[in-house]
Amino acid sequence: MPRPRSALLSVELIVNAALKLVDETGDFSFPRIARELGVSQSSLYNRIESREHIIELLRAQLFEEIPPQPVADQSWQDAARMLIRSYRDRFAQHPKLVPLLVTQTVHAPVVMGMYEDLALTLERSGLPTEDIGPAIASIDYFALGAALDATAPDEVWDPSPEQFPALRRATACSGTSAERVARAFNFGLDVLVAGIEMRAKQEIY
Amino acid sequence: MPRPRSALLSVELIVNAALKLVDETGDFSFPRIARELGVSQSSLYNRIESREHIIELLRAQLFEEIPPQPVADQSWQDAARMLIRSYRDRFAQHPKLVPLLVTQTVHAPVVMGMYEDLALTLERSGLPTEDIGPAIASIDYFALGAALDATAPDEVWDPSPEQFPALRRATACSGTSAERVARAFNFGLDVLVAGIEMRAKQEIY
DNA sequence: GGAAATAAATGAATATGATTCATTTTATGC
DNA sequence: GCATAAAATGAATCATATTCATTTATTTCC
Predict the structure, then answer these.
(1) What tens digit of pLDDT does each residue of B160-198 get?
(2) Quick check: A183 contacting B, CB < 8 Å?
(3) How does the average pLDDT of chain A come out, rounded?
(4) Which residues, other chains included, contact A22 with Cβ-Cβ below 8 Å and sequence gap of 6+?
(5) A184 and which of A86, A134, A150, B137 could share a cystine (Cβ 3.0–4.6 Å)?
(6) Burial level of B127, CB count in 10 A (0-12/13-18/19+)?
(7) What is the DSSP letter of A176?
(8) For chain B, which domains are there?
(9) Within a 10 A sphere around the Cβ of B156, how many other Cβ atoms?
(10) Which chain B residues are closer than 8 Å to A140 by Cβ?
(11) D5 C1' to A53 CA distance, Å
(12) Which tops the pLDDT comparison, A109 or B19?
């Protein structure tokens, strides 16, 4: 109950406990973090402000775990693919965290670095300046949606053939849920990059 | 307190009250629905099972509000664009509802019809069968991400020029948040359709 | 017409969760 | 040593989801 020799708590301990709970159960709560760390619930408030604060710390942690990769010595297509993939991979490290993050799409400083790399890469593609913002956003949307789908439970995607014959044909050869998401992600990535290439060549407008 | 002449409650009343609260405040709760309808909290459980149940009813409602549009008499490109746009427009009707829906990506029966239309349309594009599933998923990811971004608060997307020059250039000419999202959506839509077209022509692989 | 079943609404209770705050105790700077 | 800040706490508040036995009204069926 009194103040101990060395502090029992730290922001890092709290965030790690929260992340562990999220990975295991898909959510965290103050009582469970406190139990995990062997402290009282109210003690947590000496280090952090609120639940939202913990979520923002988790977001930062997710983007600090993987260092950005150098990208300048590749074709812009390969560079873009690598950047988008690494963006998605960060979410894939802690899939259950994604739903907690996306409900408030904050463009935190940690994400900005990757956006900057992407902007530089897209400038090399020859895309007109006014299209670079929309291109980054589109990529963001795609990666976010894919990350969200990756967290969805393994469901049987089995449309009844009578009602939805085309859907039935389309999903006939799907493996596990993870494989399906991975295939979709690879497909969308190629298609997006190819589409941007066309747009850059002004073959669509 | 006793049983009234005519029922005070119905599933529809509950769902409408929940939707109204979501539109106004971004969330709903049992106490507030009950207050809104002038009934007791526990009465709600005579009609609905749980909070999740209400969310699923809201999801269904969102997709029933807008009837599906006939699509067979257009080029597959225009048809695809229309389908994706209408998918997104449903979310735009009730933006604040989106975060509640995406946290559990369920492919409810209501969405299946649109998927079927999309599958039929993509078959007309000449895309190989095994790519149709991934194409639908990619489009889904993109539309979902865009819908989520549309709910984000109007933030000042103003990267400091020293740190992020390319990002600065890319976002120089942005208007309101809604305009930015709309531009990004239109761009991504064109790019996706163009990319799929290339893929169908087997010019990328 | 009346008994039995069912529908509707309720109050009270339980459990979990976020958050505040005054209090106690310990460390630390001067 | 003393003032002050740091650390942890218990207790309290408030909101929420959910359960359940109970009361009353309506319906059904003989």
Answers:
(1) 778 899 999 998 876 788 899 999 999 999 999 999 999
(2) yes
(3) 89
(4) A28, A58, A94, A96, A97, A100
(5) B137
(6) buried
(7) -
(8) 11-61 (1.10.10.60), 71-200 (1.10.357.10)
(9) 6
(10) 145, 149
(11) 24
(12) B19
- Residue B203, pLDDT above cutoff 80: no
Instruction: Say which of A133, A170, A196 has its CB closest to residue B132.
Output: A170
Other CB atoms within a 10 A radius of the CB of residue B137 amount to 24
Nearest to B49 by CA among B23, B25, B14, B22: B14
Provide the H-helix boundaries in chain A.
11-25, 30-37, 51-65, 76-93, 98-102, 109-124, 129-151, 165-170, 177-200
Rg (CA), chain A: 21
Report percent pLDDT > 70 for chain A. Answer: 93
What does the pLDDT read at residue B113? 86
Contact A72, A121 (CB under 8 A): no
Q: What is the DSSP letter of A8?
A: S
Tell me the C-alpha distance between B154 and A107, whole Å.
Answer: 11
CB B87 within 8 A of CB B114: yes
**Coil, strand or helix at A140:** helix
Q: How many whole angstroms separate alpha carbon B173 and alpha carbon B157?
A: 11
Amino acid identity for residue B39 in this structure: V
CA distances from B65 to A89, B23, B80, B172 (A): 36, 15, 20, 37
pLDDT tens for B75-91 read 999 999 999 999 999 99
**Mind giving me the DSSP string for B10-76?**
-HHHHHHHHHHHHHHHS---HHHHHHHHTS-GGGGGGT---HHHHHHHHHHHHHHHS-----TTS-H
How far is residue A185 from each of residues A62, A99, A188, B71, B115, measured CA to CA in Å? 20, 18, 5, 27, 18
Q: In whole angstroms, what is the distance from residue B143 CA to residue B91 CA?
A: 9
Partner residue opposite B188 with nearest CB, options A138, A167, A198: A138
